[in-house]
């Protein structure tokens, strides 16, 4: 069932629709709180709170872009509040991300696994600066649209695009180094 | 490595995610073939894109978490501070946890069955096929392990590879089927029909490829599909919704035309549709639909075309209705229906 249909059923008080919505987004949100840096207890609490809230306030619920960006945004807000972070994401100066130094040295274990390019690429993404990584993961792994990411993180869609662009450039640079060493 | 601009990067990603328009796709394919820098970037990004991890799906934990929330909701609902109307609500709500438990047990049973089934399939060897056949007059709905639903028209055969879903999702079709493919950008879904391969990420489309028909037709209802012929990349066609590709088996040429969804997918709703079909094609359709051989006696009939929709009625009634507009007659000879007449 499409989200929009589920949402209207939830608004009408359909518990089964609510359960389906939860089961659909739970795995995604469980992955999401982990890369927001929350531990299991905080993360699970955040998800439970968001859905409990969603059910209790279902009559008054306002969804702007999609239910997907609504639940992601709500989980993020709870975790940021918990960690005392500013609700609005700090955006780094323009030149920061692309000027990250890249290490040419591969660790011995990396050399062992360098054929495993898949694993290497996942590691490159891990090396991205915090915000770039978060935005890239949201797009790359969670398949959120630019607009949805912008709404969840309270930033402009153009900033989202720039971060994705930089993340890919970074991964390509690292891939190139990998190729040259082989 | 030279840096390309943001727009081109996002275009490549859009392509990989199946989210760009036909024009953008054409532009991109053109650029891949002519611009070395661009095609390098394309390769890199495709590799980066395919390296993403699948998000783990822990059913047990999800159900646990859901049960806890449902318990909380029920507790909140049970607070006796409201009117009698609320009272009747709480009774219903109190019954819910039982249902939730029943549902999670069912889920568990299903996943166990599914897991088991997969194991069995795998042990049968990855080259094995699962065959799904329909007899003349029969239709069948097939659910594939990835959530894709295939509706198989009469006299058709769908073979599913034993390693379906491992890396790609590949099926082999003879006859006609409507595909409702579950979206998964990491595992393309490919329908093989003779020399034509139709590849999609997730969408609705119809493929008609009967061995005794002159054409193979791919009609796209929603999304985007990529059609390859004879493995020749230069002939690749990307279809937009509402377009269909007709590949002629005789001359190997393909052409793209518009179509009306009803004309193509009517068969799913038990509607027998002729869309300016020649009598030759119509006879084949009738024969598949009603499960008896149909022959044409007069060559003059071959010059006419038929247009019309028949909803769930017997063969003789269909012919009766055609007779009202066209001068035809018919008789049974043994088990074969013989149609004769001429165009009006």
From TrEMBL, chain B:
GO molecular function terms attached to this record: sigma factor antagonist activity
Chain ranges passing through the membrane: 95-115
Identification of the protein by name: DUF4974 domain-containing protein
Domain FecR protein intervals: 133-226
InterPro entries cross-referenced by the UniProt entry: FecR (IPR006860), FecR_C (IPR032508), Ferrdict_sens_TM (IPR012373)
Organism whose genome encodes this protein: Mucilaginibacter celer
Domain of life: Bacteria
Residues in Protein FecR C-terminal domain copies: 271-339
Alphabetically ordered keywords of this record: Membrane, Transmembrane, Transmembrane helix
Keyword Transmembrane: yes
Keyword Phosphoprotein attributed: no
